[in-house]
Structure formats: structure tokens, C-alpha cells
Design a protein that fits this description.
Blueprint (H helix, E strand, L loop, with lengths): L1 H11 L4 E2 L2 H8 L12 E3 L4 H14 L3 E4 L18 E4 L6 E5 L4 E5 L4 H10 L2 E2 L12 H7 L6 H4 L6 E8 L4 E4 L12 H5 L7 E9 L1 E2 L3 E9 L2 H15 L3 E8 H10 L13 E9 L3 H17 L5 E4 L3 H12 L1 H8 L6 E3 L5 H15 L4 E7 L4 E7 L6 H5 L2 H14 L24 H14 L12
Parallel strand pairs: 2-4, 3-4
Antiparallel strand pairs: 1-2, 5-6, 6-10, 7-11, 8-9, 8-10, 12-14, 12-15, 13-14, 13-17, 16-18, 17-18
Helix pairs in contact: 1-3, 8-10, 9-12, 13-15
């Protein structure tokens, strides 16, 4: 191992081969602070050539490699295991915006670019990069691509896969595949790009990407509505799509307990209604005409919903500050849950038409399995993705509740499967769900996945123990 580390120092400079515990600690613990792995070193290359050199060294010395971006994942996909024989490959220094093409509506970026920085660079060119999620101030685009991240804009713009036109990838053998042409049509064989997106670094290392940009909307208008049931939220979604068409870019469902937790742990935030309601939906329109046009669409939609008794109350943001305040109610749910204590998270998806039935059925199953558990249910209703989180009953210790995690996961994931859904909608599998997915994917699918893995990474060195 000494020889390997010295070769790495020669390749990228000794300052960027971290081996001391104080230097490596931040790279070895997962975002939720529940797991810490071990590594021989943290390697910090500066460009694609250095990544390729390091991957070749790992292949030569048989050292497993764990690619890592912002380390904001929730499924243990970007941290090493406890064996201590792997190297962490941090992509954070690959952080250049290589090109912005406003005619082709594309931006070429390196994998270590922070998502928020990409959004800001797009805005400075009077364009929109629509991927948006809670960790956007610290997550990197390489991580977003490797997990096919979702976020709040999927309803209109799709997952990260739909926002990428090309990749630069270092293969498991240290060779560079460059496909950064920015083409929307290229029908010349297998789509290698889509193999690496969502592969969680198990097939190769994404070092750069060509991203789609969009015209900036002339106006964005936000509304929060209160209603009684998820079934009513689905009806409202259908009406919103009919009224607003592609201008509807956000449709987020939140249960009452979500906002109660936010108001409890962030007392500066206020619910804009006189009383609490069982469910809420946060809607956003991105209008290409004007704010007046967007507001008229909202007023028509909400007025009709109120007349039909589909919603109980509604507020339309009158300013950017009010809009921001409404979004903060949504974005602070996860942090409020963390302040409340440990909880059991599920990132699931089911067909949109079956969400209401899934929630009512699975809520009942969980109450039978763990009486008094609190359901913190929120997520992207418009694309069928729920963060279906379970908090302990009041008075039950976190540690006692977390001991039930395997049993609760089984209840939830079996129900997801019965409703034709997926146990991972946007977070990936990592190490956390690696074994569990074998219960729900067919043997044929798993065999194909393993065949692809063996073909591209025959030495089994790329992010071992993740996905498969």
C-alpha cells in the first residue's frame, strides 16, 4: 500500500493524497452521521487526466475506489465500508464551468461543480437549469448524475437523466470516454450515457457533463392550498394540469405533521392559515408570458377548486419573499425531522393514480405494526415520488424505535411492491438498499445488471458493495 500511495502522490501531488485522520474524517462519514467507513486515503484529483491516472493506479494495485461528490447522499453510496482497503476519490476539485452555449441551450460542467453554482451560472446567462433539491448548496452535479437525482422540478423538466445530453467518463480501466457534443439526436448505437447515469459510480467515474438549459420564465408564482385528503390532492393535480399545462412546474404534497414539525423547530416560520388542515399542496407556475398571466391561471384554478369544495383554503404568494417563505415550509421538513429525532426514511414511488390508496393502506399497516407511529409524508406528488418517513410515537425513545427499522421497512417496501412502485425513487440504492432490492427486482433484471457490471468493471473495483 505504501507503493500505491507514493504513486498517487506522484500523480496528483502529495498535498492531495490525504491519509491523516483529521484530514479524511469529513469524507468517511455519511450525511446523516450514522455510519463511518475506513479508507487507505482520500484522493483529490484536479482534472480528468488525473482521475484517469488514479483509476489506472487502483487497477494496477487492486485498490477499490469509492467516487464521491458532495457526500450528501442518504443511502451510503458515497462512503467506503469498514474494510479499510479502499480509496475515496473526491471529485470536488473538478469544479470548472467549461462552456455555456446560449444558442444550443447547453452548459458543459465538471463533476465537482456545486448544483447551486450551476443554477447561478445559468441565470447569469439568462437561462434556467431546473434541477432543484434541498442539498443544492452542497451537492455536486456528478453526484446528481450518478444517482439520477429528482427534486422539485421533475413534473415539468424530468429527472437529472432528462437534463443531460452527454458525459465524459473515466472507465474502470482508466480510459476516458468523451461524449460532450451537446446533441439532442444521436442514434448511433447503445446509449452509453444512460448506463452511467444512475449507476452510483459502480461502472466508471463521471468527470464532466453537457446539461440542458431552458429559457428563464418571465414569472414564477407560488401558492399553498389546504385540503383534507391525498385523494383530493390528486384531483387538484389533474385540474392544475388541465388549467396550466406545462406552466405547472411544482406540485408538492405535505401532511399536517410535516408543517407542525417545521413550525415547532423553526418558530420564525408561520403557517399562513388560521388553523391546521390534514394535508397541504405547494404549487408553482413558471410562466413564459407574465406574472399577471400566471396569477390569473392560479386564481381561476383555485377559485374552481374552492367552489367544488376540493380545497379548504388557499394563499397565493404576493411577492418573492412570500414565495420564498412558502418554499421554506417545504424545504425545512427534513431538517425539522432531524431536530425532532431519529426517524425511518423511505424514498419511494408509486403510479400517481395509486398514491392516495397507497398512503391510506400503508398508514394502516404501520399503525398495526407500530401503534402511534407518526407519518411524516411529503414529496413530489406530480411525479409519484413520496418521502414516506416514519417517526417514533410520542414518548418512545429513538433507539427503541430504530430497532424496528427492518420490520418497518418490510411493511413499507412490500406495500410499495404491491402497488407497482419502486423502493428508491431518487436517492439510489447505495449500500443501504443493496440487499433489499433483491426482494423486488426480478432475477432476470439482476442478472442483466450483474452482466453489465462485470463487462465494464471486471476487477470489481468501482464503488464495491454498492447497488449490487
Amino acid at each position: 500500500m505504501t507503493e500505491f500511495l507514493q504513486a498517487c502522490r506522484t500523480a496528483i501531488g502529495a498535498a492531495h493524497v490525504l491519509t491523516e485522520a483529521g484530514d479524511t474524517a469529513g469524507y468517511l462519514t455519511d450525511q446523516r452521521g450514522r455510519y463511518t467507513g475506513r479508507a487507505v486515503a482520500v484522493l483529490r484529483p484536479a482534472d480528468t487526466a488525473e482521475v484517469a491516472a488514479l483509476v489506472k493506479l487502483c487497477a494496477q494495485y487492486q485498490v477499490p475506489l469509492v467516487p464521491q461528490g458532495g457526500n450528501t447522499g442518504l443511502v451510503l453510496g458515497s462512503v467506503p465500508d469498514q474494510q479499510g482497503n479502499a480509496a475515496v476519490l473526491s471529485l470536488r476539485r473538478l469544479n470548472r464551468i467549461r462552456a455555456v452555449d446560449t444558442v444550443n441551450n447547453t452548459m458543459t460542467v465538471e463533476a465537482g461543480c456545486i448544483l447551486q453554482h450551476i443554477q447561478e451560472q445559468a441565470a447569469s446567462a439568462e437561462r434556467l437549469f431546473p434541477l432543484s433539491l434541498a442539498a443544492e448548496g452542497s451537492c455536486t452535479i456528478g453526484g446528481n448524475l450518478s444517482t439520477n437525482a429528482g427534486g422539485t422540478g421533475v413534473l415539468r423538466y424530468g429527472n437529472t437523466r432528462e437534463l443531460c445530453l452527454g458525459l465524459e467518463v473515466v472507465s474502470a480501466q482508466g480510459e476516458v470516454m468523451s461524449s460532450l457534443k451537446g446533441l439532442r439526436k444521436d442514434n448511433t448505437g447503445y446509449d452509453l450515457r444512460d448506463l452511467f447515469i444512475g449507476a452510483e459510480g459502480t461502472l466508471g467515474v463521471i468527470t464532466a457533463a453537457v446539461l440542458k438549459l431552458f429559457p428563464q420564465p418571465r414569472a414564477q408564482v407560488t401558492a399553498l392550498v389546504a385540503l383534507d385528503t391525498p385523494a383530493q390532492a390528486l384531483q387538484l393535480l389533474q385540474q392544475a394540469q388541465q388549467h396550466c399545462g406545462p406552466a405547472l412546474t411544482g406540485f408538492e404534497l405535505m401532511s399536517d405533521i410535516c408543517l407542525r414539525l417545521v413550525c415547532k423547530h423553526f418558530p420564525e416560520q408561520r403557517l399562513p392559515f388560521a388553523q391546521h388542515h390534514p394535508q397541504y399542496v405547494l404549487l408553482e407556475l413558471s410562466d413564459s408570458e407574465s406574472e399577471e398571466h400566471a396569477r390569473t391561471l392560479f386564481e381561476s384554478l383555485i377559485g374552481e377548486a374552492l367552489e367544488q369544495s376540493l380545497v379548504n383554503d388557499a394563499v397565493i404568494a404576493a411577492s418573492l419573499a412570500q414565495s420564498r417563505a412558502l418554499w421554506e415550509l417545504r424545504e425545512n421538513i427534513s431538517m425539522a425531522q432531524a431536530h425532532e429525532g431519529k426517524n425511518i426514511k423511505h424514498d419511494i414511488s408509486v403510479p400517481i393514480s395509486r398514491i392516495a390508496d397507497f398512503i391510506s393502506t400503508t398508514d394502516a399497516l404501520l399503525q398495526a405494526a407500530s401503534p402511534g407511529c407518526r407519518m411524516v409524508t411529503f414529496g413530489h406528488l406530480g411525479d409519484g415520488n413520496l418521502h414516506y418517513n416514519v417517526s417514533p410515537p410520542l414518548g418512545v425513545a429513538d433507539t427503541d424505535f430504530i430497532a424496528q427499522q427492518a420490520a418497518i421497512n418490510l411493511v413499507v417496501h412490500d406495500s410499495v411492491d404491491r402497488f407497482g412502485g419502486s423502493i428508491s425513487a431518487e436517492h439510489g440504492l447505495g449500500a443501504l438498499k443493496r440487499e433489499e432490492i433483491t426482494r423486488y427486482k426480478s432475477p432476470v433484471e439482476l442478472q442483466m445488471m450483474r452482466a453489465i457490471k462485470l463487462a465494464l468493471d471486471p476487477q470489481q473495483l468501482m464503488n464495491p458493495g454498492k447497488v449490487l
